[in-house]
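Predict both folds.
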Amino acid sequence: MQHDIRASIWTTLLAMSMVLTLAPGCKDEQGKQANQANQAANQAANQASQANPKSGAAGNTQVSAETTVDKVRESPSYFYGKQVRIAGKVEDIVTDRAFELEGAGWAFHDNIMVFTKTPVQMVGGLLGKGDEVIITGTVRPFVTGEVEREVGWDISQETEIKFKERPVIVADSIRKVSESGRWSANGVGAQAITTVVAMITTMDVGALAGQPVDLDRERVQSVSGKGLWVGPSAMSQVFVLPSAPPTDIKPGDMVRVAGTLQKVPADATTAWGLPPAMAGAVREGMIFIADATVRPVAGATPKAGD
C-alpha cells in the first residue's frame, strides 16, 4: 500500500515536470505552474503520511484540520470522528439547532447537515439563512440514535430520511465571518461582543440591546459629560456610560470596557451632560454601553494610526 502511494507521488511529480518542460509561455507562467506542482506534491505526500498506519494519523479521533464541505462529502470515512474547521454559507435552517451548510460543487444534494446541542444564538439574533460562518466540530456518520444521544434532542424523521448514510457535523463552535460574536456548545446564550466595529456594522443595531460587551482594547476618542466615546475613529465610536465617573482617562488612551448594550433614552443629551452638538450622535433608539467598567490597558502605547 505504502509502495503504491509513493509510486503515485513520483508519477505525479514526473507528470508535472514534463508539463513544465513542454508548456510554452513566459517565465511567470512557468513559475506559477511550478508552484502548482509543488503544492500537488506536498498534498500527495501529506496524504501518504495520513494513510500510513505507523504514523498514527488514520487512527486519531481528534485531528484538527481546515477543510471544505465538498472534501468531507467526497471522503467521509476519512473524516469520521475527526475535528474539522469549515467555512461556508448557511443554505437552509431546519431548526434552531440544525442547519444545512452549502457545498461548492455542481452535484445535487452536496450540502452537509450541522447539528448543535443548543439554539445557535448569535450577536443580534439567531443564525439565519445566507449567513457566512466558520464552524469547528466533529464529523459523524448520520446514525440517528448516536447523533441524538450526542446532541441531546430528537431528530425529525424527515431530516433522518434526507441525510441517511451521509456525513454530518456536530458543532462545538460557530462564528459569523462578518461579526465578532460566536456561539459555543459550552456557553449559554450569546458571547460578549468584543469590538466596536461589530456593533456599528450590525444591520439592526437596536437588536443588540441587552447583549454583553467586553472590549479588550479600544481607543478613547473623547471624554464628555458623564461618559466617554470609544472606538477606532471619530466615525466609528460608541458612547460609554461608566457605573462610576472615569478618572485619569484622557483622549488617546487605550482602555478595556465591560458592560451591557442598551438603547439610548429620549433625554440622553441632558441626562448625560452632553453638549447640544452631540444630540445627533445619541438619538433615541441608538445603542450605548451602560453600567460600564472602564480600565486603562496596562502598558498600551497608542501607535500612529491605531
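Second protein follows, with its predicted C-alpha cells after the sequence.
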Amino acid sequence: MCRFLFPPSSSHSSVFEASENVVVAKSFGDGSINDESLGVFANAAIKKNAKIFELGFDVYHPLSSSFALHSARMKAPQFIEAAKRITPGFEVHACMALNLLLDSSSYRVSCPLLTGQTDPSVPLLWDASQVALLRGTPTFDKVVTRKTFVKNAHAGIFGEENTAVSVDMFAWAISTVLSRALNNKENSFYSFMPGVDLLNHDANANCEIGLVSNTDTKNGKTSTTNIEVYAVRDIEKDEECTISYGNERSNDELLRKYGFCVPNNPNDFIDLRLRGTNLKVHQKNVLELLENNEEKRDEFVSNYNRSEVLDAIAEQKAALDEVANEENALLLGQSKWAEAIRLLRKGQYETLEATERVFK
C-alpha cells in the first residue's frame, strides 16, 4: 500500500492509503480519459480480493455523520433542533453540511468549488434555464421541490438575517453530502471517504466497500474499524476500478443525487398522470410485457383505460418535444450536465414508446 495526499495537488490534504497498483486519473463515464472527472484505474493487474483502498478511523471519522452530530450537539444544539423541526432525519445531512463548511477544510478542497463553478453537475445547483430542460420528465418536479426545500430549510435553520452561511453555500454543502457521502450497510453510518469517493459507479462494479475491525491481540477487544475497498474479481491493467452506487437506481435518482445518468438504464420509468391515479411504468417491466405472450399483456392492460393511457403518453411526449429546440441549443457542449439530460430524456422517450406499444 502507498499513501496518497487527497487531493494530490493540495498542500492541505487528507491522507489515505491506496494500492500501488492503482492510479487516480481524469475519466469520463465510458472510461475514456479527458478533463471531466476523476476516476481510479489499475496501472497493473489486480487479483480478486486484493485491497484497493484502506482508510483508518482517524481519516474518515472526522468526516462522518456521527462526528458531525456530536460536534453540533456540543457547539450548536439549537442547530440540530432547528433541523429536526424542518423534517425528522434532516439533521444528519444538515450537520454534515455544517461540518463540511466550517470544520473540514482539508477535505473540502477536494470537492468541486461553489464559487466560479461553470459546470455544476448536481441539479440542486443548476440555474433556472438548466432545470427547465427537465420539463416533461419525472425529475423536473422533484428538482424544483428539492431546491425549494433547501431554500426554506436554510431560512428555518439560519434565519432570514444570516450572513455567515448563504443559501448558495448551504445548497452546495447539502448537495456535496448527498452526492459524495457514502454509507456502509453493515452499520448504517454516513461518511465522506477520501479516495473511495473517487470510484465511479458501475452496475457491474469490480470493487466493493467493507469494514475491517482492528483487534487488540492482548485483550481481544476491538479498538478501531478501517474502511477497505477490495476487488470482487480480477481487474485488468488500465481498467477502471468501480463500485455500485445502487443497481436499482433509475436515471432520475442518479441525476438528482450524483449528477449523471447511465445509458440504457433498465430502471428508467415514466409516471403517467391518469384520472384518479397515476401509472408508474419501469422500462424493464414494460419490455418484459412486450416479450411475454399476448395473454399477460392483455391482463396488464385490462387494469387501465387504454385510451386514457395513450392520451397521457401523447401528452408527455408533447411536453418533452416542447423543449426540444431549446434543448438542442443548450446541449451542444460536452458538459456532464448536458450529457446527463440527454440520457434522461432518451430513456423517457424509449419507455413511453415501449408502453405505447403495449397498449396499442
